[in-house]
Specification:
By secondary structure, the protein is of the alpha+beta class. It folds into 2 domains: 3-186 and 331-340, Ribosomal Protein S5, domain 2 (2-Layer Sandwich); 195-326, Alpha-Beta Plaits, CATH 3.30.70.890. It has helices spanning 80-92, 118-134, 140-154, 162-169, 209-220, 226-250, 253-270, 275-286, 308-317, and strands at residues 3-7, 30-42, 52-68, 103-108, 172-176, 182-185, 195-200, 292-293, 299-303, 321-326, 338-340. The strands form 2 sheets. Strands 1, 2, 3, 4, 5, 6 and 11 form a 7-stranded antiparallel β-sheet that branches. The chain has a 4-stranded antiparallel β-sheet with strand order 8-9-7-10. The longest helix is centred in the C-terminal third of the chain and has 25 residues, at 226-250. It starts with a strand and ends with a strand.
Length: 342
């Protein structure tokens, strides 16, 4: 179900800007940006533990943010993601501008709390829309760093770096976190399709802070050898991400399926899995498909088997919503912000 939120600018007058930004007189009436959902394919959740992850962007779902002129005073709504983004943007990028007087409208079709990076999509889109509205050009790396700071520091949302990197740079990427985050875009072979499915159930939604927080606490503990077990699993997960990356570039769907399955099994060896989430994995695997969590839980992703009808029927019987796409198809380009001057 699409979610629509609207945040009115406050009436306060911020101080003058340190960067050159458009004056109110020369600003467009509004700027709109769309940012897609992020789907992890293999290696997750090792991004927060020095591992590696392969993920892709899925434009079927996206967060759309519009920043524009206020048309009159209204009571501001509680929109923490957008307000926190505006606050940090004002502090780091557009001091002494009057961006606080602008409206921010957020419209998202990304299913909530099922591991598709819906919150970072909103933050990333808000940063890009504010920058376009202010006439400021920000490189993707700066956008990713700001999104990470807003989520991890300002809002205390648990997680690694993959969401911010993916939604700032987009495409399909292998990301490595053994040191400073590094990433490269993966180009699937044009000679073979890579059909993927995503399935989710809104009633199994779970805040990402729950599984991530539990894992972080256990990793920090020295009791029962938990840290050593988690560290070994993260090394193995990183290897599955590298295997998946090679498989995507060579069109080897069999290796990709195995890397996705192994990624989930490694996760399950170190993290508790909600029974409803495990049931989703089991239903897909019984139908002959690979299955891994697309993120923190609540949605699964895998390669569509040769008998897609059997899979789709099994997922439907389980009460799941499903979408399919071809990873090898030409990706949707990064859209330029929509600027309206009237």
């Amino acid at each position: 179900m699409p979610a629509l939120c609207h945040l009115r600018g406050s009436a306060r007058h911020p101080p003058a800007a340190i960067l050159t930004v458009m004056t109110q007189r020369h600003r467009p009436a509004e700027a709109t940006v769309r940012v897609p959902a992020r789907v992890s394919l293999a290696g997750n959740p090792s991004d927060g533990y020095g591992g590696a992850v392969v993920a892709t962007c899925l434009w079927t779902f996206a967060a759309e943010v519009t920043v524009g002129l206020s048309d009159g005073p209204t009571a501001p709504q509680n929109l923490p993601l957008a307000e926190a983004t505006r606050t940090r943007f004002d502090r780091e990028i557009a001091h002494k501008s009057n961006l606080s007087a602008a409206d921010i409208t957020v419209d998202t079709t990304i299913p909530r709390s099922v591991g598709l990076a819906g919150s970072s999509a909103i933050v990333t889109a808000t940063i890009r829309a504010l920058a376009s509205y202010a006439g400021v050009t920000l490189p993707p790396g700066r956008i990713a760093a700001m999104t990470h700071a807003i989520e991890r520091t300002d809002l205390d949302i648990a997680g690694g770096w993959q969401d911010e990197i993916m939604q700032a740079h987009q495409g399909t990427r292998l990301m490595r976190f053994d040191g400073a985050p590094r990433h490269r875009e993966l180009t699937p072979t044009a000679t073979r399709s890579i059909p993927l499915y995503l399935a989710w159930q809104p009633t199994t939604a779970q805040a990402s802070s729950i599984p991530h927080g539990n894992l972080a606490q256990r990793n920090a503990s020295t009791a029962g050898g938990a840290h050593a077990n988690i560290a070994a699993a993260m090394v193995a997960l990183a290897e599955e991400a590298r295997r998946a990356a090679d498989a995507i570039e060579h069109g080897d769907v069999h290796v990709l399926k195995d890397a996705m399955n192994q990624s989930f099994d490694l996760r399950a060896s170190i993290m508790p899995i909600e029974p409803a989430h495990q049931a989703m994995i089991d239903a897909a695997r019984r139908a002959g498909a690979a299955a891994n969590f697309s993120g923190s839980g609540g949605a699964i992703v895998g390669v569509v088997p040769k008998d897609p009808d059997r899979l789709l029927e099994a997922l439907d019987d389980a009460g799941l919503s499903v979408t399919t796409w071809d990873l090898a198809a030409p990706p949707q380009p990064v859209p330029e912000p929509w600027i309206t001057d009237d």
